[in-house]
Amino acid sequence: MPVDASGPLSRPLRRRGFLQAAGAGLLATALPATAVHAQSLAAAGFGPEPPLMHGYSGPQIKAWRPETDRHARYLRSRVPLAARIAPFEPTQARRGLDPRPRLAVLANDYVQPAWETEGYPYGPVAEAYALRFWQYPDVYASWHGLPLDGRHTEPVPPYGLLNLPNPGYTDAAHRNGVLSLGCWFWPRPENFADIVERTPQGTFPLADQLIAMAQHFGFDGYFVNQEATITAAQARLLLEMLGYLARTAPPGFHLQWYDSLTVDGRISYQNEFNQVNSPWIVNGGQRVNSSVFLNYWWNSAKIQASATHARSLGLDPFEVVYAGSEIGMYRFAQPYDPRAIFPDGGAPRTSWAFLGSEMVWYTVDGDKSTLARQAPAYARERQLWSGPAEDPSRTGRTRQPDSGRPLDPAGWDGTAHHIVEKSAIGRLPFVTRFCTGTGERFFVDGVQAGDRPWFDIGVQDLLPTWQWWIRDGAGAPSTAIRADYDHTVAYDGGNSLRLSGALGPSASAVVRLFKTRLPLTASSTASLVHRGSTGSAVLRLGLVFEDAPADTVWLNSGAVGAGWSRWTGDLGAWAGRTVAAVHVSLLAGGSGAPGIALHLGELRIADAGPDPAPGCPTGFAVERAVRAGDAASVYLTWDFVPDQVARYDLFRRTSGGRRWLGRTYDGAYCVSPLDRAGDGATTVLELEAVSVTGRRSCSATTELTW
């Protein structure tokens, strides 16, 4: 992607030159980790040779088989793509906002130590950025490139033509109804003629493999960043290959084309959708790519012309045209104003796209090794998505963007100012424990079960739709109560949702949490798991119904005490009605409520009735273990049974009970590191299947022999 000379060269853009200049050389066989790499893994807390993501060259793609890709079994996403509920304007944070524009986000997935060359789906540190705002993107593409397998530690490692999306990010994206894409990047030190090879039968071997890899690894398509000149003949073959890919891929497969290459093989950024680049979307009446990510140097006239050109081809501009903003470069001071896409007082024109939204993490300097020290990064994340007030119902800039102050959010409207929040909460049971996907310890059923830091966005729960939309009893913005994630205590996972503050006499605060479409039955119930102090305030659960969206039905949610307790309320009186939003509130008594410090550990809306525990897992075994002294990376497999199972939890048996090791929705997991920790000749490992509502199976066991 081109560097706009009118702006400063940010960290991600400096990396572009590095990626493009990566040296030549193809990997014939998997190479062992070097001693230097082993030392860096140990310093980061990993065991030896954990599952490591890598890039793939063109020849490697064409020869790819899951049986010969050494970590292919351990880098899959198995979470199905959730369906999103229909837009419902009465519960939007911004009333009247048009729901047609979509958002594509092209970004690094995890930003963690050594993120320039390494990628892990999960690991034993808390210092890893985990996106908390899936309600706004429709498409998430992993953009950063990765070295070829076994080449990570070379001074200038060769990068692959292709990098796959991190499976943890795909899990989280799919759980929220977001498409997850891998990334194609050219130039690379290969022969492009091999990439676009066509057989005498008219097939394209590389295209067939791209489909096979996406199906195995569980993602939804590719972002195609073809950004170097090729011959006109090669460009024609690429056009034909992408059309072949679109025809032969399964339904829902998404190809997003970057506005760079012309059909005769030249690089020419159009900065609009026009007759030069539209053949990459539809050519001769056939679809080639699903959408186009426009280069960044557009204006109001170009955006309007893009929408007009799309319609002239019989295309929906919101489905096809995504106008790009360089978030990583310009941050909150965008010189190409998004209001050209979303004109004040007028209808939106196209969809929108981001490059580099992970800037919220790396632009915060200093130590981020603990969740407390990461707070400024997540505040900046709320500013990016919810607007400068960190409230999606109060978006909009308070001054014009200032290129001299790119990290001042006052010049930024907020993503929520233009893009309607979306939700995948459309059927019962709905259960969330508010887990963000990182932590410094791990809790199971309210009891600490793990004492080491960890990251794994793949186990992230459905998080609140609005972060944070808080009002007083009269409907005015309130700062009396603050909402945030608390990683010191949890009911399940690594954190709870904490509400803190103080209320005056008879005052109240409403925290709007989830956009939903949940049809209730005569057996439906709601429950909250909570602990802490509310003073004299009453905790209430609020339901907004689709047929009366201006009203909220409040249910008192029971006494809150020092330990975790569960309140359950019967919703049968509202059978046949549909819950469109879920809130909580605190209502103070006549003397006020100082010192509120309430933790919500679980929110559940479900139908009562049979709730069986999953069957005991079968086939649990150690596939292999890589040892280094008294530590190992242990590769475990079992029979994956997706029905009735929401996740699998792994533990080690100790003399004092057991310790949590990991969680996944899959039939394979690598524990890295597993320390011998005083065990004798063997370490006993346990596996449990867990249902959506938290019912646990009996434990399957296996042993690692040291």
From TrEMBL:
<protein>
    <recommendedName>
        <fullName>Cytosolic endo-beta-N-acetylglucosaminidase TIM barrel domain-containing protein</fullName>
    </recommendedName>
</protein>
<keyword id="KW-0732">Signal</keyword>
<dbReference type="InterPro" id="IPR032979">
    <property type="entry name" value="ENGase"/>
</dbReference>
<feature type="domain" description="Cytosolic endo-beta-N-acetylglucosaminidase TIM barrel">
    <location>
        <begin position="125"/>
        <end position="442"/>
    </location>
</feature>
<dbReference type="Pfam" id="PF03644">
    <property type="entry name" value="Glyco_hydro_85"/>
</dbReference>
<dbReference type="InterPro" id="IPR006311">
    <property type="entry name" value="TAT_signal"/>
</dbReference>
<dbReference type="InterPro" id="IPR005201">
    <property type="entry name" value="TIM_ENGase"/>
</dbReference>
<feature type="region of interest" description="Disordered">
    <location>
        <begin position="382"/>
        <end position="412"/>
    </location>
</feature>
<dbReference type="GO" id="GO:0005975">
    <property type="term" value="P:carbohydrate metabolic process"/>
</dbReference>
<dbReference type="GO" id="GO:0033925">
    <property type="term" value="F:mannosyl-glycoprotein endo-beta-N-acetylglucosaminidase activity"/>
</dbReference>
<dbReference type="GO" id="GO:0005829">
    <property type="term" value="C:cytosol"/>
</dbReference>
<dbReference type="InterPro" id="IPR013783">
    <property type="entry name" value="Ig-like_fold"/>
</dbReference>
<feature type="compositionally biased region" description="Basic and acidic residues">
    <location>
        <begin position="391"/>
        <end position="402"/>
    </location>
</feature>
<feature type="signal peptide">
    <location>
        <begin position="1"/>
        <end position="38"/>
    </location>
</feature>
